[in-house]
From TrEMBL:
It is found in: Endomembrane system; Endoplasmic reticulum. Residues 2-210 form the Ankyrin repeat domain. GO terms for molecular function: signaling receptor binding. The keyword ATP-binding does not apply. It comes from Apaloderma vittatum. One of its GO terms (cellular component) is endoplasmic reticulum. GO terms for biological process: protein retention in ER lumen. PANTHER family: ANKYRIN REPEAT DOMAIN-CONTAINING PROTEIN 13, ANKYRIN REPEAT DOMAIN-CONTAINING PROTEIN 13C. This is Ankyrin repeat domain-containing protein 13C-A. The keyword Membrane applies. Pfam families: ANKRD13_C (PF11904). Keywords: ANK repeat, Endoplasmic reticulum, Membrane, Repeat.
Amino acid sequence: KESEMETEEEVDILMSSDIYSATLSTKSITFTRAQTGWLFREDKTERVGNFLADFYLVNGLVLESRKRREHLSEEDILRNKAIMESLSKGGNLMEQNFEPVRRQSLTPPSPNTITWEEYISAENGKAPHLGRELVCKESKKTFKATIAMSQEFPLGIESLLNVLEVIAPFKHFNKLREFVQMKLPPGFPVKLDIPVFPTITATVTFQEFRYGEFDDSIFTIPDDYKEDPSRFPDL
């Protein structure tokens, strides 16, 4: 159980950080075959591990981010910017010597002068703002990614989705399934390169896969088994 001091430290960290929300838009994503060669261009096909794969460029991958920062001081904003710049260059968060500063609660916003009648009669989508004045920053960044699809991989993408749906359920899983079924090129994604920072690219690969033989007894539920309802709270 957290102590009062630990709770206060968490609050101080939150009060000195941006309120951040990010969504990865897939509406405009398209796939085009990656090319190789200088004079005589041809579709890029290479082996990834044991599997022959066709390479595609992922176009139109847009990261939309929103930041709220009306609770931050100018010093907070400058420090947070310096930390992010350091991380983007491969720095370590531990090197920043970040110590949360004890701070008092924010001063209350100005008294509200909007009447209930004015609020409910406002134009749709343009309701008058209540409370503290918002300080928001929105940005969009387009990423270029590469994906390698193999039709030799023994597992189908639908099987992978079924597994992910069980072990990592999340709110918009149906959108992921729809995206995969409607837009993803044929085959199984055996390699994915996607930039996470200007100088850092994350790579995910499936280089080998084999089915194992399991005895049916390992799937038998013991007679003395008792389900713990709090074991998997998210399921």
